[in-house]
Amino acid sequence: LLARYWASGKYWYAVQPLHVIYHYYGSEVAFRFAWLGYYNKMLILISIIGVLIFCYSFIILHFREHRRLQELCTSEIIMCPTCMWEQCTFKKLKDYCSLSRLTYLVDNWASIVYAIMVSIWATFFVEYWKRRESKLKFSWNLMGASVDIEQKPEFEENTPYRRISETTGVLEAYIPLSRHILHYTVSSLACFLIIVVVVITVLATMVTGKVVRTSLKLMRVSFFDNNINMIHMTVTSIISVIFIRLFDPVSKFVICFKEFLNVLL
C-alpha cells in the first residue's frame, strides 16, 4: 500500500499517510516523516515571500533612480591599486558599478524586512510544530510514553563500584563522583583537541591561499594577473575540501581514543 500510493513519484502532491507509516514502521520513523512534511509545508510561505522580495529588489534597481548608485557608476574618481606590484593598475570608481548593483539586490531595506519576517516565521514554526507533535502523540496514544534508560549489562557485571540503593535496598552498580569528573575531563580534552584541529585547518587554508596568491603575482604572467581572484578562490576551495575529508578520520580517531581512555581509566 505504501509502495503504491506513497513511495511513487506520481503521488508527490498527496498527503502523507502518517497513520499507516506509524503502524508499519513505528513512531520514530512516522515522526520523522511528519516533521519533514511539516517543514516543507511551512517553507512554502516564506519561500514565496523571499521570491517576491527579490523580484521587488530587481524591479526597483532597474526602474528607480538611486542617487548613490548613479554617483558611483558615473564617478571619474581614480582608485589606488590594491597591491604594490607593477601589474596592479589604477581603476576608476565606476569600474565597480556592476558589483555594487549586484550587491544592492541582496542588501537593501527589503532584505531587513525579510530577515524580521523570517525571525517571526521561525517562532511560529516551532510553536505550531509543538502543537502538531502533541496531536500526533495523542492520536497514537504516546502522551505518557517515556524513555526507559537502563544500565548496560556489561557495566553491571564488570564495575567494582557497588552500593545499596536507598530506594530499593538492593545492591546496585554506580559510578562515583571522581570517575564522573575524570570522564568529563577526558571528554573535554577530546573536544578541545577537535577544536584545535579545526582552527589549525582554517589557518592553514588562509596561509596557503596567501602563499598561492603571492606566488602568482611574482610569476608576472598576464593570465594569472587577470584571473588571480578566481584562481585564489579555486585553490582555497580545493584545500578546504581536502581538509574536510581528512577531518573525518581524525575526529573518529579522537573519539575512539577518548573511549579507550574511558575504558582504561
The main sheet orders its strands as 1-2
The pLDDT mean sits at: 79
Distance between the termini: 53 Å
Structural class label? mainly alpha
Portion in beta strands: under 5%
**What is the molecular shape?**
flat
Rg for CA atoms: 30 Å
Concise structural overview:
This protein has 265 residues and is mostly helical. The protein is 71% helix and 4% strand.
Describe the structure.
By secondary structure, this protein is mainly alpha-helical. The chain is built from ten helices and four strands, in the order ααααββαααββααα. The strands form two sheets. It has a two-stranded antiparallel ribbon. It is flat, with a radius of gyration of 30 Å.
List the helices and strands and how they pair.
Layout lengths: L1 H4 L12 H8 L1 H37 L3 H8 L3 E2 L11 E2 L4 H10 L2 H31 L13 H6 L3 E3 L6 E3 L3 H43 L2 H5 L1 H37 L1
Antiparallel strand pairs: 1-2, 3-4
Helix pairs in contact: 2-3, 3-5, 3-6, 8-10
Task: Please tag this protein with its features.
single chain, 265 residues, mainly alpha, two-stranded antiparallel ribbon, 4 strands, 71% helix, flat
